[in-house]
Structures
1.
Amino acid sequence: MKKIIYTVFTLAVSQSILAEDKPQDLGIMNVVGVSPIGDSGIAAEKLPTTVQTVSSQQLDDAKTISLAEYINRYLGSAHVNEAQNNPLQPDIYYRGFVASPMMGLPQGLSTYVNGVRFNEPFGDTVNWDLIPQGAIDSMAMYSSNPVYGLNSLGGAIAIKTKTGFSAPKHQFETYGGSFARHSEELTSGANNGTWGYFIDLHHFQEDGWRDYSPTNANQAFGSLSWRGDKGSLDLTLGGNDNNMFGNGATPVQLLAQDRSAVFTYPDQTITRMFFSELSGSYDVTNNIEISGNTYFRQNRMRTFNGDNSDYSACSDSSGLLCDGDSPVMDTKGNTVPFSNSVSSATNNTSETQMRGKGGSLQSAFTGNLFKHENNLTIGASYDAAETHFASDTELASLTANRGTIGSGIFVDDSKVRLHASSEAVGVFLTDTFSITDKLAATVAGRYNHIHIDMQDQYINDSGNNLNGQHTFERLNPSAGLTYQLLQNVNVYGNYAESARAPTPMELSCADPQAPCKLPNSFVSDPPLNQVVAKTWEGGFRGNLNQLVDDGKWNWNLGYFHAINNNDIIFHRDGNIASQGYFSNVGQTRRYGIEAGTSINKENLFSEIDDWHFSTNYTYLNAQYLNGFNIQNPLNSDEVVAVQKGDRIPGIPEHIFKASLNVDLWKKVSFGINGMYSGNQFFRGDEANITAPLAGYWVFNSTAEYKITKNVTVFGKVNNIFDTNYGTFGVYGQATDVLGPQYDNGRFVSPAAPRAGWIGIRLSI
């Protein structure tokens, strides 16, 4: 046993211990939540899974523009790609599972805000632009846990927003610099012991570093709170009006000429959200707490994408425009004559109106069971949503700089008018029983039932429409143990199952005989099976505080192994990357090792300097376990086979993060953080037949000076070595637009060059 413990210590400590912006304690928290709602929790050392947490102070100190940016820089087993190339529209990956605003990705992380599920009802997507960072009080990232419901295949992200009791202060912060980016944020909170309020108003604007890529975001979030002797109530309201341009991946040959170039434009997303929630809790006794919430949420989204065209002149000399060998019909039932004004581009537009409502109720019981400490939480949730989706494709022509000019002619096959409604019911239980003072057992489970009703509002053909009703249900269990091996060494192990149901968007685009163009052209809805993930994880965690006077030294070393059954992927079918269909492809696997350390040491060299160090390393192997056929990414007329063991595209095999921060005189702060992300295969190359996108190192720095207790100036520099790298790759066709010399087929989303900003923070 001593040899095992010594090996664990050696592996954990032997990582290059570099740094972190301010104290980023990635070790064990004292108390963590055990369900999406309620403040009841258990001692972290008794939870048999991995939890990483972020506080509002850590977000402030890191000077990141969003929670996603913080996760990317500091949390273990997480990485972000910039497929959209907009700072407010990232794809967040954790252990190879994604939460993204992009339709078509297999969403594998659930997200909650104050206990309300924030995955969109139409595609389970997550719009990270909806909540200002300044309104976040805390965030916890959990590994797979069925209690968090649908989409928790890889884990869950639970966000808690501020109130007048958790953030009783007033603050104004503004900064500006590169890319004409500027941000202004006003927060105010106060309470009188019984009533409290909090409000956050945020404006973010930039021209963007790439061509034709401006962003204008306006966000508001606030709460009115009441606290009594035994109970509490919080009314939370939020809204936004965001206009974002993210022009995505660009052919590598064009990027070699101009790093800021875009392929075609515009690619615009407008989100307008309204969110309201009433939550509360009541202590029935000292050992029984009841908590719950009810909410209404509305999100209206519009997209406009100028793209190249897959249409061409008919080969039969009829003078018509064809899609392959079939003449293109417009929405008035007419064939479309071929001309330059309709053949070189398309304007793809969509409007999605989503309204959701529901609530959750849970009871938490703490106390002794058979003279042993026991924590039991049981609860239920109900979520109902209505979605109205409309999309159109307008024939267009390309301008000299690859913008688009619409013709006013709309394609009949691409017109979609879909109404989808869903109802989801969940019943969950989690119980942690202390078998001894050192050994604790946790069992949990959740029953999910979801019904989806889809009604086609445009196609009347009974054999080829989107009408359908789908029901999915499953009981997902988990069980685990923790053992306090030594006073400062904890060992844990857990098994969990979690599921996600096919979304209305996936069900509407699942016919190999009628591929669709995301997010347009939904034409059929054959059934798909729900995805079930079965996850094993275990490891060691603890501290070496006895070796650090006036400081903390936390470490962790763990292993995870997750197999998705009936996994769903998007099969490309056509000459453009977004055309294809969804299908179940059998099993996929994600397994790996994760290790981290963090040291916070006061007065390291003298009485004036405090140091903060941390590292995180993840080995992540994501692969297919069953073979299937895909379109050759280099030749759309060929089929290639995906073999068992081929890597899943878009997921790096190695992730390393390190950071160092020093505080001087409690007034001056300097920090540097760095990250390595390994190579990844291009999306569309599931067979791994082409070279992957190269891995990269990137470093960022921050500085802060507290002039007075109420006035702070700060600055930050991203990509301080101006590294030219890409975070995302996909295959596409550029020759029709740029010419035959642009025949590589590889499109990359480039990362931003070196950039800097300075700002000031005023607080009372």
2.
Amino acid sequence: MPQLKVVSIVQAGPRIRRIELVDPRGLALPVFTAGAHIDVELTGGLTRSYSLLNDPAETHRYVLGVLRELDSAGGSAFIHEQLAVGDVLQASAPINHFPLYEAGDVNILIAGGIGITPVMAMAARLQALGKDYTLHYCARSREDAAFLDELDARHGHRLKTWFDGGDIKRGIDLNALLGTRPPAAHVYVCGPLGLIKATNAAAADWPKGTVHYELFKGSEADLAPENKDQPFDIVLKKSGRTLTVAADKSILAMLKAEGVRIKTLCTTGRCGTCRVTYLSGKVDHRDDVLDDDEKGEVLQVCVSRAMPGETLVLDL
């Protein structure tokens, strides 16, 4: 993994820090596309994914916006409490599971809270392309909206802000915004699960492939209006153990609870890290990365489940 040096740490909001990273040798960094993130190795073996918020045309730096999670398991707590200018971090090359469809004629960008980070890069790219776009930024208050002055200076009238004070009725009216699709329009949304679900519902009649989103927390299954999952059994072939995965648990959660070590990153079915070979059983694949051939051999334990009545035999 390449090394990145911290050259700036700025408080961008009450709980958000802006982190600027460069190559320690002063070299150009690998190029990235709007919507991309990097996986950063932190203290104690933790690896966390952070979106790149700066203009994709820049090759001299990566800029991150990191929210201090109140229930942090160590990642955001480390960045907010221990990370210092001059520190050198190990990080992956840019990865993009939330790409911008650059041929879209009309682009509606919707961000909630820290979800603004990948959307900032998208807005910068659309501006450079001379495309039609509007950026809707949702936050509890103006004070909670990080990077607002920077966004206003760059995007002017294309930036629309929605401050609801904790009352969603005072926020963005997604039904009015997305009820009728403009020709050749695409919508991009990143932020809290509720905002993504509401956007998907408001754009339910839009053609497939025109509604794009990225989950910072949760999984694809969380977007379903109702959890109808059922318990199912998995068999660990190498040890001969049979485990029951509860309706509200993932295979990954069950394996970790049983002390089975699985490498993970996103836990949302978008990075492909936690793929495991299965030997039998019909799989309900819920990921966004496996192709049809791969689905015949592997599953992603963070989101995949067994089809009703099936038992999955894993090569573990």
3.
Amino acid sequence: MAGDKVIKAGVIGATGYTGAELVRILSAHPNVRLAALTTQSYAGMPFWEVYPHLYRHVDMVCRELDLAYLADKCDVVFTALPHGHSMPVAAEVHRRGKRLVDLGADFRFKDVAVYEKWYKVDHSEPGLNDQAVYGLPEIHREEIKGARIAANPGCYPTSVILGLAPLLKNRLADTGSIIIDSKSGVSGAGRNLSLTTHYCEVNESIRAYNVGKHRHTPEIEQELSALAGESLAVSFTPHLTPMNRGILSTIYARLKGSFSPEEITGLYREFYAGSPFVRVLPPGVLPATKSVCGSNHCDIGLVVDDRTGRVVVLSAIDNLIKGASGQAVQNMNIMFGLPEETGLERPGIYP
């Protein structure tokens, strides 16, 4: 055990895909005791009946949400809810002096007007929003340590921001040239039934969606602008691919100068030297979603295209883990003074 600290954790929205991954990871965490799992759809059912792969690992019964009970019993509350639903939870958790890790979008934006514009929801807790920390540990580790509310990043932004951070922080890329092509597995759409994620609609097909208007766009631009020290806009196109999980982002940017693959790779390795979950691959080796499946890793590969003067950055994550639940646990570890790898050290699964 990483010390003798015991953290009592509750998960709201435990029976969605990200909630279930949270429960799986937390159930094996050496410093965590699960205190409550809430759901609207399966209250009264043993959790393992909803997710049989956790039979004999999680024997808790799903509960309806009783916010006062949850905030009283837990040291940290994870919210895996649709946007707009975490604000009242945050208010009660904060009032009781507990910590919150929100996997939704409610606290990701520094400017609530941007959130309200893109998500079409009024923000009821702007004061708490001002206190929230954007929970990307590799960029905001020090701020997360003292945070009461960690706003877990979106899955696409995680892959993109980690892919571009060293270039922008070191002013090596033309900020007006950034094009992002991202492909995600179907689990990113959640567990609810939908025609667009029906087997016959997804299988043997790949399609772009929300081109130029995906809600993760302003989140990406907020964080990249902060890294670059200037306001920037990106072209971001997400795609749905016929696989269960994973994101591969291919990012193009024009370089400000001539650099060898070894120089760019060295820069990335130096930037992420203290980040255990970012793996910068050797020159000539490119990431794949299969290599990070089931892990909290982000694999980054780099190609310098001398002919066009561009760098091509490829970033792969598991959208349910580094893109959601694993990163949420990483944030919790930092907030409670644990090594951030605790409970997340395992590699992925293959094939």
4.
Amino acid sequence: MIKKLLFFFSLLPVFLSAQQESPETVQCSLIEAEMKAHMALHQAASVGFLNDYNLIYHRCEWSVDPAVNFIQGAITSYFKPTVNGFTQVHFDMSDSLRADSVLYHGMPITIQHSNNILCINLPAVVPLNQTDSLCVYYHGVPPATGFGSFYQGTHAGAPVIWTLSEPYGARDWWPSKQNLIDKIDSLDVFVTCPLGNLVAGNGTLVSDITNGSNKTVHWKTRYPIAAYLVAIAVTNYVSYSNYIHLNSGPDSMQILNYVYPEDLALAQSSTPQIIKTIALYDSLTITYPFSREKYGHAEFGWGGGMEHQTMSYVGGFSNVLISHECAHQWFGDRVTLASWHDIWLNEGFATYFEALTEERYFPQNWLNWKKSTTTDAMNSPNGSVWVDDTTSVPRIFSGSLSYSKGSYLLHMLRWKLGDQLFFRSLQNYLNDTTLAYRYAHTSDLQRHLENTSGQNLSNFFTQWFYGKGFPSYQVTWGQTGHTLSITLGQTQSDPSVAFFEMPVPIEFTGEGHDTTLVLNHTYSGQVFTANLNFIAEYAFFDPDLHILSGNNKVQTIQSPGAMASLFSLYPNPASGSMQVLNMNPSNPVSSIELYGIPGNVIRSWQVSGNQNLNSIDLTGIACGLYELRIKTDLGFVVKKLEVK
């Protein structure tokens, strides 16, 4: 979900743009404080006991009218206890909803409903690993919390209802198990609504049946799904499809689009770009993870998007938005974060893969993406990618940390490992049977990166993921003949990290040549030497922006090539004597040496540094080509000299 914080937690009549503003621009302290308290209550109440059973199946039957802010439903759940002595089933369910009854084997049973938890008392112990079922009947007006977990409004005068449950909003509109431990193995959704509407949903469309003035739409998915990825949207949509041939076989997969009638022309001209986006993601990682069902878009009235499984909800049709949400089908839906501490496993990946479409298809935007993303990441100089407060929704969806810095961690890992090992690591991560269609922690990703590359990445994750801030580099360099000397220093924006380790690229250019040196930087003040077959004039720190860093300084000690233009030899060729003219008196000369072309010193002179014109005695110097090396306070200058 891209820049989700941009939607105020109370439902605003005007929706904000998620593409241009970072979450930090939204200042609503009262709402944020209320949400923080609300989330703390939820976590304290539910996390402990929702892991005592495995959810096998949901049959969700909902009745809604997009003109009315109300939902009525029946949720049939199949489950298996994972502990002995199992006598209660708990669901997350807002206190704003009312449970009318719960039937167990066709008979009503007792319940308690408080603190947003529905507690269902079973009449007898259900044995460990035995499948059982029950059905919850409920109704109510969902509360206006989250990002609009259940929104009822209008578009162009037409009524609409849509849902958006990430991170904690599923319980606002249906009794669910919304932790990050247990996915629903299989799901059927039946939505009854007035005629004239279409219903967007997860998985495959099974049927759309008219019954008087109403219709019932049936969606099914046979892929495991997290509760926060279950969604419906109901309005007077128009639908059309695009199709794609996937790498896994000859059959075409449907890309189903539900859009507002007033935006049909724009959508039809924009959504076909998703075909090459999916093809790119397939080629870099694995085949689209839900290929037996579909992919698609459902338009909704929010400034960003949400990666509902097999059908992303989008507030527009830009390449940035639809490629971001599509990437979540791999990173977020197939493999889902196991903790909101690790939201970057969803958002950092989607942001980076969104950028990979720019690199591949819009290369003119690639450098700008890197510049703008590093700038945004550095807007939080004392923050970590690891989320330190999961009760704060704004912190979870921090644009500068979870999105920008998170995506740049992937960019740095790609640089550190190389393309082949980086993308192979991601393939192994996605294909891991313990993670696929399940949940993952950052440690799981690290394990695959290390196992595939053979590199120990403990320092990288300690510094860049858990640590706060970013480095600033100080480069001091000089050249004597063809020997280059580089001193590389580093400071940090936050004291939590004493030093950021990264291979550091520096490009040197001069005399029509260029070369890039990659320095294995392990401590501040480290000195490196290298030989160049040309005299360097300029140095460029990390020219391709491989590293998240800012406020870098390159001290050229003045670049020898640039300084050389400030000295002239007269005459040249010379015989007997010559003069060295220094046109920059602020850079005095201390000595002059004459080298033979093999590199041996022929003669040297100590000179008066405050003189702009120095006479050099060449008596006894054999005819030939030489290098005159002029030492100044800022380094060496090398000039070619012919003696005749």
